[in-house]
Amino acid sequence: MIADLDPSREPRVSFKVIEGGVTAAHGYRAGAISCGIKNPDVKRLDLMLIVSDTPTVTDAVFTTNKVRAACVRVSQQHIRDGDIRAIIANSGNANACTGPQGIQDAKAMCKATAEALGIRMRQVQVCSTGIIGMTMPIQRITPRVGELAAALSETGSEDASRAIMTSDTKPKSYAIEVPCGEGSFRIGGIAKGAGMICPNMATMLCFITTDAKIAQDELKRAVRCAVDQSFNCITIDGDTSTNDTVIVMSNGQADAPEIKKGSEEAQTFRRALHKVMLELAKMIVSDGERVTKFVEIRVRNARTQADAKKAAEAVAKSMLVKCSWHGSDPNWGRVIHAVGYSGARLREELIDIYFGGLIACKGGLTTNTPMTELEKVVKEPRFSVTIDLNQGSANHTVYTSDLSEEYVDFNASEYSAAVHARRQKGLA
Amino acid sequence: MIADLDPSREPRVSFKVIEGGVTAAHGYRAGAISCGIKNPDVKRLDLMLIVSDTPTVTDAVFTTNKVRAACVRVSQQHIRDGDIRAIIANSGNANACTGPQGIQDAKAMCKATAEALGIRMRQVQVCSTGIIGMTMPIQRITPRVGELAAALSETGSEDASRAIMTSDTKPKSYAIEVPCGEGSFRIGGIAKGAGMICPNMATMLCFITTDAKIAQDELKRAVRCAVDQSFNCITIDGDTSTNDTVIVMSNGQADAPEIKKGSEEAQTFRRALHKVMLELAKMIVSDGERVTKFVEIRVRNARTQADAKKAAEAVAKSMLVKCSWHGSDPNWGRVIHAVGYSGARLREELIDIYFGGLIACKGGLTTNTPMTELEKVVKEPRFSVTIDLNQGSANHTVYTSDLSEEYVDFNASEYSAAVHARRQKGLA
């Protein structure tokens, strides 16, 4: 089962790509409005709502960061009761490191949503993304939730996907229809990334809806498996931000048979969910802050899966390696260096390194492949680096990016800028 | 004992700073010549030699990287026999990932040194730093070792320190004289750093000489202890390059009494060695590639030493935190975020964060300290960030730097540039 979900291979499942993102599956509506959360003078969508009109089975994966945003704490409480009907999310403020006031604000967002939709407050999940350590401008949010509910529609996914963007340059959305039994089911989602695709990245949010009919425990297994093979292949080391959240709602409205544990349908569902998450994860990497290269790091033939993962992540995290990619420099020396300190078991004299299909290092030594040919590969906006340890049969793939001067510049003054802007406006 | 060497405090030992680096202690000579190792057309010191004219007790700490340079392998073999008399080191080529030819070249450097000095080959340590994966231009090195031996002098330390520089902008040297018993001993050293001060940094080399009289096992304990509290506080995570090496030679020529295990003198020696390594380590951070800020990260009151270390290193490694320092942005949100994913046990609501002496975050929440005051601290070229976890009594300090656009630019094309340069010259 795990082998089938090896991220080094695309999940094998028949599907059709469809439009509609988080409203592609039957029975969901979404919408967004502009509240001026970050800056009251700037009109941009920054508050979104996703609703299931019928009961759901919902599972979520939250940040493992010990500093958890107020919204994460509230959502974790709410999901215990099950039958989640709505997700409300804002950009412009992370509601993290905001103390008891933050908890109160997150609850106020749930309460307003529940009132607008005629559901219970504990049926609402709440997410926030943006700057850390500043109180939510809740007076600009809760009074608008009725209007937000009125904006819900079966074509509202794109608005919703835009409302969670922070430094993302484009909305991220993906949906598929999957034949299953005599019928089919749909899975679709929206996501936001930004920040360097790296341990200390900014918030990652992903909301997925499906009309498949599935029991709680089977959904949970599928979600853990898919997250592990998608978002955890980009958010290296399992380090997550204060706000990272993946929520998957299923409402059973599809005509496909129920997804039962151990069945062929369960296999299909897992692969389909993996596919959707993998596509969204790749979009996040491609759209990382000031990223100019998308790089697939494939470690092959490690002794164990853990070794393969360590090696791939060490390369993906290395600032020196990322700089060399940015400069289109096929620097295999830095790659082998990172593999060497990764903790993976290896023998230097067995290591082969490829840029694209070209071998740059054979048995730990340089090859005769012309530098100009290797440079051609690394000059491309998308390429792969394959590290063959020739030690065993375990593989692991990580998706990552280069490191640009623009990234440094972009991240050099977020805080002062935000605080000064707020002070100038006389805001708290 | 360990508590006494807490890196959060300077080692408590009486000493006088003296000139002379690696030739400050009695009985050592050093020298350097220019061999054009990286580029035959460029005249710069790139081959150095340090010699003790009398028998030594020597200890060394080598990289833990599983990809080890040929010179490291050879030095590791040689040190087993004891009585090291000479260290030969070059810049311009790392002799890493060079296979059997690399081993042969490293041995040839030892052999030439032994012949020039009339000692055994196994009494020579050999070190290299520079680009990885290219064969050593050994024909430009070994024939010159006689000339190098002729250049040895009791004032040759500065030349030696210059010859191991790569992207370092200045030589690094430090020496002290320490009263001990009725007499005194001297300890001095030279070092080279460069690369980002970070897990995946470039090679760090440090050569230390002392005239203290000390037994092998006591020297070994002192070296491990001092490295752990100095270089391991800058080379985060214990990740080291393919070539990292610290060598400490002692020749017993001082008039101080013998350093005996458990004695007061042993305590004094350990602290003195720690002091020398700490000063050299700080010089390495300050002179990191394109570094504009030197930052001391102090974690206070963690539950355990391991927790304190995890928290400090997570902050020091965070690209987002480093970018904010570069922009003089007192972004405590990013700091607490990194502490949160560090794995250290903590309670968010107990965390206080200071920039310099100013509190930016109290109990996990923002404070009223004016942003303009915090900015003043972060604008300085040297400042401290203190993270008080208020959980226990363990402290740890890490020395690190910012991340600049210039760093990215500087590291973007080393490889292609070097290869093209070599090809143009018709070199291998």
Radius of gyration of chain A: 22 Å
Number of helices of chain A: 12
Full CATH superfamily name of the largest domain in chain A: L-amino peptidase D-ALA esterase/amidase
CATH class of the largest domain in chain A: Alpha Beta
Return the domain count of chain A. 2
Q: Please identify the oligomeric state.
A: homodimer
- What characteristic shape of chain A results from the CA principal axes? globular
Helical content class of chain A: 25-40%
State the secondary-structure class of chain A: alpha+beta
Q: What amount of the residues of chain A lies in strands?
A: 15-25%
Mean pLDDT of chain A: 89
Count the beta strands of chain A. 16
At a glance:
Two copies of one chain form a homodimer. Chain A is α+β, with helices and mostly antiparallel strands.
Task: Explain what this protein looks like in three dimensions.
- 2 copies of one chain form a homodimer.
- With 428 residues, chain A is of the alpha+beta class.
- Chain A folds into 2 domains: 3-286, L-amino peptidase D-ALA esterase/amidase (4-Layer Sandwich), CATH 3.60.70.12; 294-403, Roll (Ubiquitin-like (UB roll)).
- Chain A is built from 12 helices and 16 strands.
- The first copy, chain A, has helices spanning 70-79, 99-117, 145-150, 157-163, 216-228, 264-286, 305-317, 319-326, 332-341, 371-379, 405-410, 414-424, and strands spanning 16-17, 28-33, 47-52, 57-62, 86-91, 124-129, 172-180, 183-192, 205-210, 245-250, 294-302, 352-355, 358-362, 365-366, 382-388, 394-401.
- In chain A, the strands form 3 sheets. Chain A has a 6-stranded mixed sheet, with helices on both faces. The first copy, chain A, has a 6-stranded mixed sheet with strand order 14-13-12-15-11-16. In chain A, strands 2-3-5-6 form a 4-stranded mixed sheet, sandwiched between helices.
- In chain A, strand 5, helix 2 and strand 6 form a beta-alpha-beta unit.
- The longest helix of chain A has 23 residues, at 264-286.
- Chains A and B meet through helix 8, helix 9, strand 14, helix 11 and helix 12 of A and helix 8, helix 9, strand 14, helix 11 and helix 12 of B.
